[in-house]
Amino acid sequence: MTPDTEWDDPADSPAPAAGGRYAAPGAAARAAAALEREGRVALAGPWGAGKTTALEEALRILAPASGSGAGPGARGGSGAAAASGFGSGSARTVLRVTAVEEDRGHVFGALAQMLSHCGPAHLAVLSGRQNEVVDRILHRGADEPLAASEQLPARLAVTALLASGRWILAVDGAQWLDPASADVLGYALRTLAAPGLTAIVTERVHGRAQSAARLLGGHPVQVDVDPLDAEETAALLDAHGLPTRWAGPLQSHCGGHPLLTSVSCTALARLPASQRHRPAMAGQTVDAAGAWLRSTLGDDARHTLMLAALTSRPSLPLLLRAGRSDAEEHLARAQAAGVLSVDAASAVHFTAAALARAAARSGARPLRAAAHLTLARAVGDPVHEVRHRALAADLPDQGLAEDTEAAATTAREAGERSLAAELFLLAAELTPPARSATRIRRLSYAAQEAACAGSVDIARQAADALTASRAEPTDQVTALLAVVDAHGQAVSDLEPLLARCRELAAGHPDLLAAVELRAAIAANVAHAAPERALRAAGRAAELAAAGGHRPLQAAALTMRARMERVLGTADAPGTLAEALALGIPAQHSGIRNSAQYLAARHAVFDDRLAEARERLVDLLALAEHEGDAEDLVDIWRSLAEVDTRLGACAPALAWADQAVRLSTEAGLSMGPAWYTAALTQSAAGSFAAALRTASCGARASQEEGDGLYVSRNLWIMGAVQLHTGDVADAVASLTAVAEAERQVPSADPGMFRWQPDAVEAFTCAGRLDLARELLERARPVAGAAGVGADSGPGAALDRAHGILLARGGAVEEASGLLHRTSAAFERLGLPLEQARTLLALGRVERARRRQAAARTAWEAARAVFDDTGARPWQELTRELLDRAGGSAPAPGQATGPAAGGSRLTESESRRADLICQGATNQQAAQHMFISVKTVEGMLSRVYRKLGVRSRTQLAAARAAGVPGQDARTPPE
User: Fold this and answer.
1) CB atoms within 10 A of CB 936
2) What percent of the chain has pLDDT over 90?
3) Is the pTM of this model over 0.70?
């Protein structure tokens, strides 16, 4: 048995820099802080979670100069190493024990490992009799090795040794300690209190670390090594030079499991560039998942898990009906190992798709076929009964194919599009060769359902099979367009596919209309060419009308109205009304593509938020019953945007979280979901989270060629950087947005509201000419679009103008304008914008030396932020008020690193954490989308604030939690 950080094939295990460093930096920092605070800490996590890495990182934080000690099987260092960085200031010695499964049978084996690294100077404190005990534990000399029954002398000797100095005992793998060693170490830990003896212990477990708790005594602090979230997965992909847009599929494959994710990244990085289109689940990942199952579960339990993995809806009752009488015990073991979870309804959920696939493949094909037949008898649902019979079949079967098609139709009517796609494909595969027309029809249905489900793999299988079958152009085009649709936002590389569709669709107006509609979408999303998209949408509407295809005509008119709105033409309302008048149900061609959804979006753009919310809630009810994943994601994203503007911060965060979760699970494009999440986090979560999420969104959108969401994510990055005082970075981010918009200008400021933040950033940076130029350019555009000062975008431009006036010295004029703007936002029902304007007003009043007026404005802003739950803005306002009412430190009051004036801003804290996790200046710059020079300047400020001179001292200070993290308001 190998340590947790490895698996059956060490040659394929990830490099530490790729897997280890990114696996558990948060857990390491929490463990180091808990160890210093409490003196005892347990690190817990399932197989391969990164516990060893987290232990080493924690010891590196606490002993940065010398590294951690290491026993056999551990990586690097010596067994006893001097440690610094503790609050007491005195050095400590790290004693490291690494246990593996085979060690449980070696009496005092763990003690022997620990004592073998203690030199004569350490052992000199022991009596002669105690040194004899040590020699017997180490099998030195002529005496018999110490027997398991002789625990008392071992207890006394080891306790005397550990009482003689200041030690950190680091035990990796408490579950594998031999009982005799566990008894002796437990006695010493119960006898000697911290800070003389501190201990950090890892245990492979999903849940409470019972072995570690017994060893440490009492109820020690437990730090869990959490799974990677989608953003951390994106960072790991980026570290391997892979597209961060793969974060969603990889998260689904690996469940955030650090080792599985690292193995996947390593395997995908070895692929040639020509094969890096969409991340299929790597065989190495399934092998690693299989190693996890073999290392934690016996044969019987793995057979039970194979049955669970082969069915779409595994549950304890189903497994019992399938003859697995010990299923409850097997599932409990698997749950303890972190392989799956069982909910209150007894449904079984694998923690990673790779684990489910490994479990399903744990038996040979005949065994799996027999398992499917068993499940067919036990499942109780006619659709799933047919699915299992189809999966058990090896040869064409006309009757079974008909049953499978009927089951697919039932699944489609129930809205289970992914299941329907799988069943239609199975029905096609079971169709006898003589019935080619029937097979082609079933393949076509499979492709269409796969498109709705976002299943690129099934869509491609169906399309390839149709091409091989020499199907009619209609069927081939339908399947190829399904492949296009299944790609979601990632359409930048699909031009050849669309060109092939045009060739096949020649002479068929309705088919050509469908192709032109996809071309319009691609022109808008991938090429940021709204005029080209408008022309394609117009052609699609004309062709659909000529072909008498009303649903397609409505979809094309909706796309045309969308582009007319982008370009600011007056035709958009009329075109949308024409699309609505066709009376096509919203769910016919995807709710997100419907005229009804665009009407809701237009209400959002116009700040008719109550109307927008009512429309969206109605569409959500429809999407929950008849929509697909993309429909739900788009509606949730729109609701998050609406609630953010309305100041309903908690619901906004919940909508955005659901959108990110489903985008991840369904393998959808992550750029749009991350943009919405960043938008809501910047209002209701934290500025740090918003900046991190927007950075991931910008990278993912860039890789997908989605220029729309590159700009939107960069806007949020720039806005957050502005709010947190990183004016230079804000200018860089918003300048990138300005450049992109200059290439493809949007004529509707209600759709994309970046200009006011850019004007403010340029103003704060002292680039007043740029600020005036942008403001003068934005005003006519807003006016042409019918957007005046009594609109949200118009009022935001007024706020930016007020800040620009104040910077130019016209403070009285600025004050009057900001008063009027605040009142306008209040009338519009935009509380967060109102409160943000009040913050700006307070700064202007302070510049006028009207301190009472400044405080009044800030108090009013705080009341709004408190009412809405806008947490980052509450903190920012609190600091403004503290500074306004603060005073110099009293004599004798602390003025060192923990004093209020030395608090780190959120951005400084975030970058300091990156450096502490081992990132170079270059890596930190790339991660945060800033320059290396900016990182270097930030480090100088952090060193000065914390009173440190090196990265190791910085890591120790951060582990100790000094100082607090606070946001800083932008410079005035």
Assistant:
1) 12
2) 52
3) no
